[in-house]
Amino acid sequence: MLSTYICEPTNVSLKMSALFTGSNLIELPSVDSTNNYAQSLLRQENIFEGTVVWARQQTQGRGQRGKQWESASDKNLTFSIIYYPVFLSAAWQFRLSMAVALGVLDSLKALFHKNGREVDNLKIKWPNDIYYKDKKIAGILIENSVSQGNLSTSIIGIGLNVNQTDFSPELPNPSSLKLVLGQSFEIKVVLMSLCEFIEAGYLKLKANHETEIQQDYLNNLYRLDVSSGFLVGEREIKAAIKGIEPSGKLVLKKSDGEIQSYGLNEISMII
Ligand code: BTN
Predict the structure, then answer these.
(1) Residue closest by Cα to atom 11 of ligand 1
(2) Which of 20, 35, 97, 127 has the most CB within a 10 Å radius?
(3) DSSP element (H, E) containing 196
């Protein structure tokens, strides 16, 4: 018995076009965090690659930088995918982050197209948030383990705001598909599409198409080459994003012309 889930999970088989992602779907009524649950699975048994842990409610969802991920019960998608990217050097793990973010973005672009909406304002905010205009609709938390210099397991945790329209005023700039597209969505259908597109991104990475991934990522990067405000510790600076280092660090050109790179815990963009 896993310590983290509250009710018995049901295994649901779905008709979907992803090859393996989500073919083993563990649906939980409520859990602390799907990433935690996936971690417990990896500790206990041999788990099929592409297993998806999906919770209708998350009580202690985790975000980047040690933050919480808040999500109203049964309104949004909170799920984690288990992959084994053993082909990828740990030094290049940011490629996985880019491939997954592009998969999420492509899935949302397809949904927007289907609903007759333009997709130009759908962007990836470094490192892997999904934004529509200046608001966040999805976040990604990837937790990797490493063995002999390569990735061994990866838990890809994704939170996508689907049908929630009221958010805590403490959240900086949240939005949802319903707020943007003006209608509700069946969350399992959105999940199936995400699985399909994320898997396509993952297989692209596995097939060594990293140049294409890098280019697509830059082409879809929020505020690339635009002067923006950033917080470095307590200090506010003006700078423009110029690129991304292979390590995933953000390369900025500051207003005084100096080029400098920053890691995730060193800088945040002011929106
Ligand atoms: C972020 O933007 O800070 C990342 C948010 C990631 C949230 C998802 S929800 C499913 C999975 N389980 C978690 O505890 N976190 C991720």
Answers:
(1) 157
(2) 35
(3) helix 187-206
126 within 8 A of 221, measured Cβ to Cβ: yes
Can you tell me whether residue 135 is helix, strand or coil? strand
Q: Cα of 171 to ligand 1 centre, how many Å?
A: 14
Task: Tell me the percentage of the chain whose pLDDT exceeds 70.
Answer: 94
Burial profile 11-33: b = 16 or more Cβ within 10 angstroms, e = fewer: eeeeebebeebbbbbbbbeebbb
Contact between 248 and 214 under an 8 Å Cβ cutoff? The reply is no
Residue 232 tokens, joined: 């470095």
Model pLDDT, residue 19:
85
- Is 21 in contact with 100 (CB distance < 8 Å)? no
Ligand 1 environment, Cβ below 6 A: 33-35, 61-64, 67, 69, 78-80, 129, 139-141, 157-159
Q: How far is the CA of 159 from the centre of ligand 1 (A)?
A: 5
* Model pTM above 0.90: yes
Rounded distance between C-alpha atoms, residue 238 and residue 242, angstroms: 13
pLDDT tens, 94-119?
Answer: 999 999 999 999 999 999 999 999 99
